[in-house]
Amino acid sequence: MARGLPDLTVYDTFPKLLLHHALVRGGQPAWREKDFGIWQTWSWGEVAEEVRAFALGLKVLGFQRGDRLAIVGDNRPHLYWAMLAAQSLGGVPVPMYQDAVANEMRYVLSHAEVRFAVVEDQEQVDKLLEIKGDCLTLEHVIYSDSRGLRNYTQPFLTSYAKVQELGRTEHADKPAFFEESASLGKGSDLSVILYTSGTTGQSKGVMLTYSNVIMSARGGIVFEGLTEREEVLAYLPMAWVGDHIYSFGESLVAGFCVACPESSNTVMHDLCELGPTFFFAPPRIFENLLTQVMIRMEDASRIKRAMFHYFMGVAKRSGAAILDGKPVGLVDRLLYALGRIFVYGPLLNVLGFSRIRLAHTAGEAIGPDIFRFYRSLGMNIKQIYGSTEASVFITIQPDGNIKDDTVGLPAPDVELKMAESGEVLFRSPGSFLAYFKNDEGTKATKTEDGWVHTGDAGFLDEDGQLKIIDRAKDVGKLNTGGMFAPKYIENKLKFFPFIKEAVAYGDKQDFVACFLNIDIEAVGNWAERRGLAYSGYTDLAGKDEVYQLLSDCVDKVNKDLANDPHLSDSQVKRFLVLHKELDADDGELTRTRKVRRAFIAEKYDQLVQALYSGQKHCSIEAQVTFEDGRKGMIKADLRIQDAVTYQPIKKAG
Amino acid sequence: MSGKRNIGDVILRCDNISLSFGGVRALTNISVDVREHEVMAIIGPNGAGKSSMLNVINGVYHPQEGTVTYRGQTRRAMKPHETARQGIARTFQNIALFKGMSVLDNIMTGRYTKMKRNFLWQALYWGPNLKEEIEHREVCERVIDFLQIENIRKTPVGRLPYGLQKRVELGRALAAEPDLLLLDEPMAGMNVEEKEDMCRFILDVNDEFGTTIVLIEHDMGVVMDISDRVAVLDYGKKIADGPPEEVRANQDVIDAYLGVAH
User: Fold this and answer.
1) Which of A48, A96, A422, B96 has its CA 20 to 30 A from that of A451?
2) Domain range enclosing B37
3) In a domain, B27, yes or no
4) Same CATH fold, A476-642 and A383-472?
5) Structural domain boundaries of chain A?
6) Average pLDDT for A247-262
7) Ordered strands of the A205-209 beta sheet
């Protein structure tokens, strides 16, 4: 077994792993949470006790083997422990997106036939109360933060502490029960149901067994050489498979410590204080960090700015090569060492990456500039490719041979093959059991002999690394005959800091046209610098100057596309800037912030028509959902701009 | 406090208060009772004497006539820091925070009346004083957690938007662990969302800590929603006092707000 991992044939479920860690490293930190301004720590021994108390409390309330336990809230140790508690009773946790509106939660709760729900606070309790009447199976709601809930008298509401109290009394009565119950499970049992975010319509409940999650986590640990000494920050939605593997699975397999931020607003600050050794984030987080650095650098003094730009130049030249262990000249090496003292070190420290050994990114393509920026600073950031159905890992970029445009080599024990349509299929120990109560969906995704369709189109390059172009079903054709890969174009546009989201159209059309969303922070700052007055998002998005700014971005993308023989037809001919931010509450994005192209096309049909009809203006009225759930209408008259396109460059000869 | 809050006995009684500045009569013969654990609103048109009333309760103004009885102690003149020690805290119409200090430090100043050691000890920052400081810091952190301002704990107050500054000011008042909290237009100049947040916090304070609250507010929707009782002032006189529904229907109040031919 690699580097002292527990024997996973014996410890084949999470409850068993928990008890194992409590035994061999009972005093070492397992979970941290910042509370009242101080990092509180629980050791493995303490965590086992907390889990036991909660599990036995659940049992007293009537939790049975096979029952589902919904978990709703920000990342909190108590909620992760609730997962372990459910698992040690032979139950199945169903983590849910904490920012989902009541309606979306209703579907998951009734579909998963949840009997018990553990929620974070009043906000979530209120949502559950709203839909409780429709979720007939829901019997108990347990909350961990009692603030504001004093006057709630519903008999089915219980506090987390109260459940633990019941459990502690129960434990005094039956001291052997917990361990017996925890050791009953086996690797092939169902460990968790993760509902997909619904990029492709109604969300599906992906059933993962213990061995799926454990073997996939083990694969990641072995491939990257992670140890029990890592520290990670758990801040991504608990319902997302990424968080489940990185913050829960890997921690329990390797026995390292996971920290939860104080609140979702303080993540960056907590990151800086904690200094994790391993960090997993979707590209947008890295992008936001970089945007912040750039904005702050513009406000820095002239000397600092000059230093920053000079040494970033050095890093760009040689940083990535040094990280990959490739030969680099002596002068550059010395300059890079100086840069590390004056710029890179302090910068990484500000970002909270001083101790970082490794970072992973996945979920979307990361902008090459962003990716290179971090690598050139000496941070080993890698792209991985995965899915919920694979328990994350399908491919990981290998050390020493990292390419911007591929997602790397297959992870340990993962097999890949390409369908004739270009779709990528995989088979791995992590591949899911089935979709919950959806045999049709399962059949469509997983073949008899275990191959799983990813739905992504891609191919292997000469080194055997996987390159993903787009969702297989989204790749279309222009009327001119050229290939149309919308995500590819959108990603190129989104790599500009001013563009937050882009939605490209072109399938069965004469040319490509797109909607753009400005990044209010970056464009707002840009406008401020130019003394451009604006009253809000809609106003700023409609400014001529902003159109000009985005027009330049589109122009650069078109130049780039003209160079690509396959995609030169996909140059953006017309675009408009949307008057509102695309939002998951309006159904325009999934909860993991992926654009739902078809839905948007339907909702803004008027605008799409206008893009292809040669109109110069189009007025639109659209519904928005405010954060408190109320709805309102926004009216705007949008300008449509033509972009310059370029002749494809013919290869000489 | 546990369970539903019980509105208790009168803890603050103002008897026949009259206050004038030179020839201007700000308050004329006003009597108001505040009961334990209730949320009471004082409303009225501009210049009706609402803030003067708070200032009298708070000890900033000393009325020429009448008395204030707080928890059985009757007084006419008392200094603000003395009332603060008695457990009365307040916020101001115009934010009165230390702009250059961090949110945490501002909230710590709310602990001033509870600090036992003199400033020489405090300057030493060692031994028993360190222990005391940690205790105070803990109270402040609970307030920060309560108001959900963890992310701006270390930010200088001057850099915060108005709505948040108001929240910090409430935080400073809460740090004094008051029995009676006076809020002077806590929601002035806020947008709808900020107002809703603030209402939530006020109700939560009342609920969780059982704090009695007297507030001045112009937004009628807010007043009718959150208060147990409303007193209406007009030209320095009390024209109505009672539950919100009753006050809403009172003809004098309608006249005061809509105006009548005099």
Assistant:
1) A96
2) 1-87+215-262
3) yes
4) no
5) 2-276, 279-379, 383-472, 476-642
6) 95
7) A190-195, A205-209, A434-435
Distance from CA of A152 to the nearest CA of B (A): 9
Burial code (b: 16+ CB inside 10 Å, e: under 16) for A208-242 equals bbbbbbbbbbbbbbbbbebbbebbbbbbbbbbbbb
Per-residue pLDDT of A65-74, as tens digits, reads 999 999 999 9
**What is the count of structural domains for chain B?**
1
Interface of A with B in 155-214 (CB under 8 A): none
CB-based contact A150 B2, cutoff 8 Å: yes
Q: Is the ipTM of this complex over 0.85?
A: no
Residues of chain B with pLDDT under 70: 1-5, 260-262
The H or E element that residue A81 is part of is helix A77-88
Which pLDDT tens digit goes with each residue over A27-79? 999 999 998 888 999 999 999 999 999 999 999 999 999 999 999 999 999 99
Nearest to A263 among B4, B148, B196 (CB): B148
Q: How far apart are CA A188 and CA A181, in angstroms?
A: 16
Tokens 């007055």 found at = A533
Q: A476-642 falls under which CATH superfamily?
A: ANL, C-terminal domain (3.30.300.30)
CATH of the domain at B232: 3.40.50.300
pTM, full prediction? 0.80
> Which chain B residues are Cβ-neighbours of A262 within 8 angstroms?
150-151
CATH of segment(s) A2-276: 3.40.50.12780
Superfamily of domain A383-472: Luciferase; Domain 3 (2.30.38.10)
CA-closest candidate to residue A525, choices A331, A213, A297, A346: A297
* B-chain residue closest to A626, CA distance: B193
Amino acid at A459: F
Integer Cα distance of A381 and A356 in angstroms:
10
Is any Cβ of chain B less than 8 angstroms from the Cβ of A36?
Answer: yes
Residue B133 lies in a domain: no
Mutate to test the interface with B, among A40, A122, A123, A150 (most CBs of B within 10 A): A150
Interface contact flag, B3 A150, Cβ < 8 Å: yes
